[in-house]
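Hey,

The postdoc asked me to send both predictions to you directly instead of through the lab channel. I've kept everything plain text so nothing gets mangled by the mail client. Protein one:
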Amino acid sequence: MKKTVFYDSHVAMGGKMVPFAGFEMPVEFSGVRNEHIHVRKKAGVFDVSHMGEIWVKGPNAAAFVQKVTSNDIQQLTNGRVQYSCFPNDRGGVVDDLLVYRIASDIYLLVVNASNIEKDWDWLVSQNSEGAELINESDNTSQLAIQGPYATKIIQKLTDTDLTGVPYYHFTFGKIGSADNVLISNTRYTGAGGFELYFKNEHGQEIFDALMEAGKEYELMPAGLASRDTLRLEMGFCLYGNELNDTTSPLEAGLGWITKFVEGNNFIHREYLETQKEEGLKKKLVGFELLERGIPRHGYPITDEAGQVIGEVSSGTLSPLTSKAIGMGYVNTAYSKPGASIFIEIRNKQIPAKVVRPPFFTAGDLG
C-alpha cells in the first residue's frame, strides 16, 4: 500500500487508517459526525493526495481534451476549471474529472484515485492527436481545506488575494515558502474553501503551516468518511456509486456537462444524443426517508406495490439534519420531486419521497 506524505501526521493525530485506492488513508479522526458538522460550521483539512493528476500538453492538447471529455472546453479560459467526464464507447462513463486550463496548450486533468491506471490507459488508447500525456499523480500532493473559515486560514499563509479566485477558478501562488502552489476553488464538500496542489516535497511544511494558522479557527483534520457524507449531503456524484461504465451522464443528471454543441465531437456523442432525443428510462434522484432506517448502496427501490423500480446508489444518516438521505436510480416516472417511493431495508418497505438536493438549508447550520 502507498502512503501519502502526510501519513505520519495522520497517525500522530489519531487517524484511523484504512486501505483505499491503493493507499493507507485516514477514514476518520474524531468521528464522522463530529468532522462533518465541524466542516459545515468551521473548517477541516482533508488529505486527498491519492487523487490523480494527468497533464496534457502540446499543440494538439485542446483538441485531445475536447474529444475525450463531454463538456465543452471551448468555454474555458486560462485560470478556469470545468467539471466533466470521460464518456466511453458504450454510453457509460470511464470517470468523472476536473479539467484545469493552464494555457491554450496545457491542461491538467484531476481524476479519481481508484481510476488512475484505468484513466491513463484509456487516454493513451485514444490519443490519435499525439498530445503529450504526463502522469504526475505519484509526485503531487493535494490538501482540501473546507469550511466557512477555510479562506481566512489559507489567507494567513499567502499574498494571493483568495477573494479574487471565484468558484471553479484557480491561480498559482505561494503558500508559506512553497512556490507555484495551484490554489483551486471547487469545493467538493459544498462547505466553501480551497484545494491546494503542490509537489510532495512541500507537503509537510504546508500541512504544519495550515494547522498552525488554523488554530484560532479550530481547524481539524477530517477523513474520507466525512468527505463522503458531505458530498452526499450536497447531492454530488461519486464514481462507483452514481457513475460507472454502464450509466450515462444524462441518466446521472449531468446533462449540464454533456454539451452537444458545434465543435464538441466527443467520444460516442451520437449515442448520448440519441438517448436524449428518445428519452431516458431511468434517472438519478435524491430522496429522504419518512420513517426510521438508513439506506445503503445497492438497496432496492420499489413502488407501493413492492415492484422494484430502481436501486440506491448512496445513502446515509445526515450528520447535520439527522435525516436518512440518499440518491438512487429510478424509473423516470418516479423521478419528479415529491414522488413517493419505498426503500427496501431488511425486507421492509420504508416510505420515502423524492427531493432535490442539497439535503439541508442554511437554517440547519444554526
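Protein two:
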Amino acid sequence: MNSPSDSPRDSHYFSESPSSASRQHEFTVTFRAHELTLLTDTGVFSQHGLDKGTAVLLDALESEPPLTLPPGSVVCDLGSGTGVIALALAVTYPQCTVLAVDINERARELCVTNAKNNGLANVRVVHPDEIDSSLQIAVVWSNPPIRIGKSALHDLLLMWLPRLTSQGHARLVVSKNLGADSLSQWLTSEGFATHKMSSSKGFRILGVQPRQ
C-alpha cells in the first residue's frame, strides 16, 4: 500500500473508520485468466482503482508457480484494502483459506462484497485483532502500508511474518523511493532472509523466507 498517489492526507486508508463521504466505483483486474470485478471507495487504499504497486506485484506473482499446499492451509493478504490481492490468492489457492486482513472497516466491507461478487467463497475478511497469535500461515502476499511509518510498519511485519510456516514465504511490493532496499536489509537482520526478486516501474518485489 505505498503508491505516492494514495497519501494518508488524501485517503486515510489506515483509519479504522473513515469519515469521508462514500463515492464507490468499479474496476476490473485479470489474474491467471480470471477477470475480477471490484468496488472501491473513498477512505480506502487505492480508492481510484488498481494502484501501480499492486499491479507490479500481481504481474510478478502471475509468472511464479504457486506453492503446493495441503488443502485447508491458510494464506494471507496483509493490508487487503478492497481485496485485489486477496482475490488473486483465492484464485491461486482455491483449496486454501484466504485471510484478508485490514484495520479499515470500510475496506473490509468492500472486500467481503468483492469476494462474494466474484464467487470466491474461500476468502475470510478480518480485523487483525481477530486472528489467534498461534495461527500458522503458508503464504503472505502484501503491498504493505509503508506510510504508517517505519516503526509501525516494523511492528506490523514482526507480528505477522513469524507466523509463516517453515516451508512458506512472503512476497512484498515496496517502492524503491519509499525504502524497499532498507526494508529488505532490516528484514534480513531480523532473521527473515529477504532478497529482491524483481524490479519494475520504481517498485521492488521482495521475497521473504521464514525466520530460521
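Summary for protein two, as requested: The chain has one domain: 8-208.

Thanks,
C.
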